[in-house]
Amino acid sequence: MAAVRQWHPVRLALVCAILAMAGGKDPTGTGIRDNLRKIGDPAGVAVDNAPAGLAALAAGKVIDYDGASGSCEFAANGDLVAANFRVSVVRGGAIETYKML
């Protein structure tokens, strides 16, 4: 059976926080808050994982992080502009998409 890539909301939040800390070079709560929106810049280099995002940031690039739920673009107050969620079911031993929210 093929491995299934699973994401947990905490993992996604950690990746976003790590990228915000690295991008702003500030590992504080204030630094995360102030830099979180910058990791989802549509004009940036598209990345979908922490190592790629960290490498791009270290090279001085702006990033556009797309997480497990899709684009991570943030409103001015720090809320996600949109999030996609997949509801899956197991039928006959296989994982199937039931609904996209």
In one word, what is the shape?
elongated
**Beta-strand segment tally:** 5
Strand order of the largest sheet: 1-2-3
How much strand content do the residues show? Answer: 15-25%
Structural class: alpha+beta
Low-confidence stretches: none
Rg, nearest Å: 15 Å
Count helical runs.
3
Kindly report how far apart the N and C termini lie. 27 Å
Whole-number tally of structural domains = 1
Could you describe the largest sheet, including whether it forms a barrel?
3 strands, mixed
Topology as a string of helices (H) and strands (E): HHEHEEEE
Q: What keywords describe this structure?
A:
5 strands; 101 residues; alpha+beta; 3 helices; three-stranded mixed beta sheet; elongated; two-stranded antiparallel sheet
Report on this model:
The chain has helices at residues 9-24, 29-35, 50-58; strands at 45-47, 63-67, 70-71, 86-91, 94-100. The mean pLDDT is 83. It is 32% helix and 23% strand. It is of the alpha+beta class. α1 crosses α2 (29-35) and α1 (9-24) packs parallel to α3 (50-58). The protein is elongated and about 50 Å long. Strands 1-2-3 form a three-stranded mixed β-sheet, with helices on one face. The chain has a two-stranded antiparallel ribbon with strand order 4-5. The protein has one domain (9-100).
